[in-house]
Amino acid sequence: MLTQLEQRILDFIRDYIGDHEHAPTLSEIGQSLEISSKGTVHRYVQSLIEKGELEHVQRGWRGIRLASPTPTRSTTLPLVGRIAAGHPIEAIPGQEELNLSDMFVGRDRYALQIKGDSMIGVGILDGDLVIIEPRDRAEYGDIVVALIDEQEATLKRYKRYADGRVELSPENPDLQPMVFDPRRVRIQGILVGQLRTYQ
């Protein structure tokens, strides 16, 4: 059973995640519900975690998610057929659905928005959203999120050579690969998907 305030906080978090696709901070929760003490908000959020309503899956309060998300918005689209990008063919309605959750949502997966044109050669453009699965290791040729010198994160193709050197390669002929001592590079995730909207 939840207290009245716990339910209000849970409802706010659920609505906020639905609107922003990430959790609010403690300050945002407190401001919305007119709770001046961040410690009070922390205590109630922690109680919701202990009661199994929320999960804390990443560092920081943005890493909170609903333990049992309420499907307030559909995560499926009708798959109505196939369409040619060359010669026209008839798009025939079908009965299948495309489940976006199955494609992109996995435990701890997260999205990043691309800034720049270093990966245009593989169709990743400025403003695109990429879906990342957290990993601390990568295979030769994977597209990874790499943290350089614990300061700068970048999305590049990963290559590691027999002598230990790590190469982070852009997919843009106008840019040069970056080569590092492996101690300077920490893999944070692997590219698993991409999203782009046109409106």
From TrEMBL:
DNA-binding region(s) from the entry: 26-46
Any one of the GO BP annotations: proteolysis
Domain LexA repressor DNA-binding: 2-58
Stored CDD domains: S24_LexA-like
EC number: 3.4.21.88
Residues of the Peptidase S24/S26A/S26B/S26C domain: 78-192
InterPro entries: LexA, LexA-like, LexA/Signal_pep-like_sf, LexA_DNA-bd_dom, LexA_repressor, Peptidase_S24_LexA, Peptidase_S24_S26A/B/C, WH-like_DNA-bd_sf
Family affiliation: Belongs to the peptidase S24 family.
Protein name: LexA repressor
Source species: Thiohalophilus thiocyanatoxydans
Gene: lexA
